[in-house]
Design brief:
Blueprint (H helix, E strand, L loop, with lengths): L5 H9 L6 E6 L14 E2 L30 E3 L8 E5 L11 E6 L7 E4 L5 E3 L4 E13 L3 E7 L16 E8 L6 E8 L4 E11 L2 E12 L12 H8 L5 E4 L29 E2 L15 E2 L5 H11 L2 E6 L32 H16 L5 H8 L10 E4 L5 H18 L4 E5 L7 H12 L4 E8 L1 H6 L13 E9 L13 H16 L4 E6 L3 E3 L10 E3 L4 E3 L1 H10 L5 E3 L1 E2 L11 E8 L4 E8 L5 E8 L7 E8 L18 E6 L4 E6 L3 E8 L3
Parallel strand pairs: 1-30, 2-14, 14-17, 17-18, 18-19, 19-20, 20-21, 21-22, 23-24
Antiparallel strand pairs: 1-27, 3-6, 4-5, 5-13, 6-12, 7-12, 8-11, 8-13, 9-10, 9-12, 15-16, 24-25, 26-28, 28-29, 29-34, 30-33, 31-32, 31-34
Length: 680
């Protein structure tokens, strides 16, 4: 990495570097305000982002409610010590949680039990405490208790046989069993640290025992909440100071079929009663076949709203518009119960009205008073105050006439009841082409407020399209750049890397977003999270294992923009009136009126150091010391990793300024943010 200060600039000039070009920042001719939502986050449950990631429950399939009821569970030594085991629904805990595990052993044995493998193992830390809970019911025989052990895997690992016991990290015994379902809890403290622990449950005595809702939950959660989130991952998000949080996706909103769509009402209330659903990313890619990928919904819509509030972001929920994923079944909910628009769905009574009502109910859940039906449910979950929802998305990434004919009545119904709600609509998965053009045109006619545009492309596309929004209509819908990421190899390739080449190209593109802040009001990189042992898609902004996490170079680019967003766009004139990006020099600028700074963002996509002069036209009351925040590497293929989490991370330095003309030398292959004290 290289950080060149003003002194270094003088040295570079003395050694023959080209004379600096002058970039004029028109401080005295401010442009559009920077939307508070300008830079935000897009969350989708892909790559084990929720279960196994942000949601820190360590037990996979804790209620045996998955399609294959024993996903995540293995009988010890192939059930050698058990006479029978089965998943039963005879007299369950509840109608919504109607499966449980029944174990029977003819003789007492330390191997009469099951092991849960967790999410590619369980991450536990030395001296950390974990709350174990389970519902138990005693059957025939003399079973006196349940032995609970957190252990490192033995010789058999977490494989099919779960052959041998490993090092015990924590253990306890549950006693006092009855013939009726009863919840038991215990706190275990780990004596060691490992990313690959597992939970072992064995019977004490001989006979039959029923188990359900098995949980092992860390006490160390964000804000120490009982059903809280993983604190290191939340901290990485909060550090970005995001303007919004879009959730829960992404294609999981749609589902492969309408039966597998995301239904927000199934994700609130008692966590133990939330019924899991297959994740549509489980078998989508042959290179990452993960049939064990389910959504437990422990992280549901209430928790998403709460997370948004915690990190200071506007919540932006995305709801199904009556369409399953068009890359899969493309199933449609009829617009009416019968007629030419009935679509191709074998959905019975399911029509578009169902989806519209879900949206109206969600707004009431988020914003309604305690006296309202859905507002009362929010209050009952512990949040009396409204979440102050302002934005809602209709559909994720749909396209074609099927989407547009559903969007129109959907938007009309929301506006009729909630006229101030800001609606985000879809322009499809591609940034150009006939379907994109048709959607953009029609949504303009319908006076849509936000159009969600997505672009996944090679790094050079981002540098070449820096002027994408320069000629967009200034009076039409605002743009939400909802999903974008440079792809180092190809879209969807398992070989894509979060390289510096990708990140610096995104930084260059984002100067074009900032220059057009009167058109672009929201932008977010995608996807957000990925588990290093359980990903389906790459690149991703934040990577983690069961213990640690790190931000990619792309993360730091996004953070440098979001923490230096400013309040007002300032027009920028490049050297010799060239277009932004000419000779691989990119620039944008904002005024940060709250801090009293002029903030200039500069990308030098070049192997050579580049001296520049900034003419701050019309600036007033300049300070004497400025700050440079620099992300740079001579290696465009550089990446961060769990082993080197900050191999490429921003560096800061102070430098002196003496006039409205500021000299600075940009490091090779660098993204630089200059914060210069000065009022307009």
């Amino acid at each position: 990495m290289m950080l060149l200060s003003t002194l270094a600039a003088n040295n570079a000039l003395a050694q023959g570097t080209a004379a600096p070009g002058t970039i004029t920042v028109q401080v005295n001719k401010p442009g559009a305000p920077i939307a508070k939502t300008m830079y935000g986050l897009f969350f989708e449950d892909i790559n084990f982002a929720a279960d196994g990631g942000l949601y820190p429950e360590l037990v996979k399939n804790k209620s045996f409610e998955t399609d294959e009821n024993l996903v995540g569970w293995r009988a010890i030594k192939g059930a050698a010590a058990l006479s029978t085991y089965l998943v039963s629904s005879q007299q369950p805990i509840s109608a919504t949680n109607n499966h449980f595990l029944r174990l029977t052993t003819p003789t007492a044995s330390p191997d009469a039990g099951f092991i849960n493998e967790g999410f590619r193992g369980m991450g536990v830390k030395q001296d950390a405490e974990y709350t174990f809970s389970v519902y138990l019911r005693k059957g025939p025989g003399n079973v006196s208790g349940l032995n609970v052990t957190i252990e490192e895997p033995g010789r058999g690992g977490n494989g099919p046989e779960a052959a041998s016991s490993g090092k015990v990290l924590a253990e306890t015994k549950i006693t006092g069993l009855t013939n009726e379902w009863k919840k038991y809890t215990a706190v275990l403290k780990s004596s060691g640290t490992t990313a690959k622990a597992r939970l072992k449950l064995t019977m004490e005595g001989a006979g039959t025992i029923d188990l359900d809702v098995v949980s092992l939950f860390p006490k160390d959660t964000w804000q120490k909440r009982e059903n809280g989130l993983r604190p290191d991952l939340v901290q990485l998000l909060k550090d970005m100071k995001p303007g919004f949080l879009r959730f829960p996706g992404g294609c999981i909103v749609e589902g492969r079929t309408l039966d597998e769509r995301y239904q927000w009402k199934e994700t609130i209330g008692d966590v133990a009663s939330r019924k899991p659903l297959i994740n549509r990313w489980n078998t989508e890619f042959k290179h990452k076949f993960t049939p064990d990928y389910y959504q437990s919904f422990g992280l549901g819509f209430f928790e998403y709203f709460q997370l948004s509030e915690d990190i200071g972001a506007e919540p932006l929920p995305i709801l199904n518009v009556g369409m399953a994923c068009q890359f899969n079944s493309a199933e449609l909910a009829p617009i009416t119960a019968s007629g030419p628009n009935a679509g191709n769905a074998a959905t019975g009574d399911l029509t578009l009205d169902t989806f519209i009502q879900d949206a109206l109910d969600l707004i009431e859940f988020a914003n309604g008073p305690a006296s309202s039906s859905w507002g009362a449910k929010r209050v009952a979950m512990g949040h009396p105050a409204p979440f102050n929802l302002k934005y809602i998305g209709i559909g994720n990434e749909q396209w074609g006439p099927q989407y547009l004919e559903r969007y129109e009545p959907f938007a009309k119904a929301i506006k009729a009841k909630y006229p101030n709600m800001q609606i985000v609509s879809s322009a499809g998965p591609s940034p150009d082409g006939p379907l994109f053009e048709a959607a953009s045109k029609r949504l303009g006619v319908l006076k849509a407020e936000f159009v969600d545009e997505h672009y996944y492309a090679k790094p050079e596309w981002f540098r070449q399209n820096v002027g994408r929004y320069d000629n967009y209509p200034r009076t039409g819908p605002k743009i939400f750049a909802g999903e974008y990421a440079a792809q180092s190899v190809a879209i969807g390739s398992p070989d894509n890397k979060n390289s510096w080449d990708c990140a610096i190209s995104e930084a260059a593109f984002m100067t074009g977003l900032e220059r057009n802040a009167d058109v672009v009001n929201m932008a977010s990189y995608a996807p957000l999270f990925a588990h290093v042992d359980a990903w389906q898609w790459t690149p991703d902004m934040i990577w983690f294992d069961n213990l640690k996490a790190y931000g990619t170079p792309n993360y730091y680019v996004q953070k440098m923009y979001s923490t230096n967003a400013g309040t007002t766009m300032l027009p920028v004139q490049m050297p010799n009136n060239a277009k932004n990006g000419t000779d691989n020099l990119f620039a944008s600028a904002v005024a940060d009126d709250k801090a009293g700074d002029i903030v200039v963002k500069l990308v030098n996509y070049s192997t050579e150091a580049r001296p520049v002069k900034l003419n701050l036209a019309g600036v007033k009351k300049m300070g004497k010391s400025a700050k440079a925040i620099v992300l740079a590497s001579n290696d465009l293929q550089a990446v961060n990793s769990l082993q080197e989490p900050t191999k490429l991370a921003p560096k800061e330095e102070q430098f002196k300024v003496s006039s409205s003309t500021v000299s600075y030398t940009l490091a090779p292959n660098s993204f630089t943010v200059l914060r210069i004290p000065g009022k307009r």
